[in-house]
């Protein structure tokens, strides 16, 4: 007789059948793809201390890993422990990897040792794009920190890491054709840190690490605003800061320093910077930068910003984005832009929009987002009052911001990506992304306290069937509590939210 599903699986699989009994794990032999087998072996050691042996394909093994397109849809897998051992069959290489992540969540410790329950799981993701974003511009994180964040993402079956590489506070990627960007404009950040940047070799190292975990890196060069740092390196490319009386008053009230052209800006205000839209040299700069970033990056996407250009006239913004979306597309990549760029009638066809407005759109936000779809693109949903991980989960939380509101775990869980922008077909939604902006974050450990457990809610929204029997808040809050031992073993400094029934 099948048992009720109460396993700590997040995101919850599409279909789970559970039977009585467990399969003990004690020095299990693993056969199959050497890379995935090695990743699983290392994870088992870290989680349980069990030292597994990798054996050749076809050899006798307790854990058998294989790929068979008949196993389901793209990134799908079947995990079966109802027989004599553990079999994970991926529909493709990514699916096989995700099957091993599910196996790790199934691990149970008892007096008799480590074991996994007897189950058959058939699973595949709901959305093709499942993203996390790390802002390395406001606070710089080095290669090892980014690798740690990739591990966090991959374990929850996220498959994209958006790196916010440039902003007013710093430029974080080496560009050969414009070397002063990192020589002069990388040495500061919002949090009082020393800043920093990735050399091209370091960036390649991140890309390779991500690829081994089936994570696609999406680099962002934010344009035409959020470009104050460019003016530190090349003052002739950037306008004088645009400051309204309101913004001056607001920054004074908060004790935020005003930006000064050509000098480091360590504040957190937005909307005051812009490249010089009517100068041809600006487009030489943009073409060179986007070409170099595209040549470095194997993934299909190139994010070109477009948000919070508060001092840029609409006509100038349109002129800029009509041209720059085409420059980005000419690199062979698909451009992504924040939803404000949807106001531009003539942006390049196929450009993808990233929506960061409220879950109930205000003003023209829904119209701007819908225009990406009308131009043959799609949408990535990141509503700031649900998906922004830098929003405080409680009013008294020591880190984070509140401009989009307080976002408790339940609010992060209970929203529907296809219902935010009215009138769009479900297939217009490419997926979701949960950004971590870092104005208040100085370490991955500090970031963990904002990210976990809310990121698990977004993982389930991105992966699990919308109408699945376990796709409920009551089920989620029980299941995510069961991940606490694994998170502790991984060194994740998660917050023990009072909303979760922690064991």
TrEMBL record:
Single Gene Ontology BP annotation: carbohydrate metabolic process
Tree of life domain: Bacteria
UniProt domain Glycoside hydrolase family 20 catalytic: residue ranges: 127-465
Gene Ontology MF: a single term: beta-N-acetylhexosaminidase activity
Keywords: Glycosidase, Hydrolase
Any GO CC annotation of this UniProt entry: membrane
Domain Beta-hexosaminidase bacterial type N-terminal intervals: 8-124
Family the entry assigns: Belongs to the glycosyl hydrolase 20 family.
Name recorded for this polypeptide: beta-N-acetylhexosaminidase
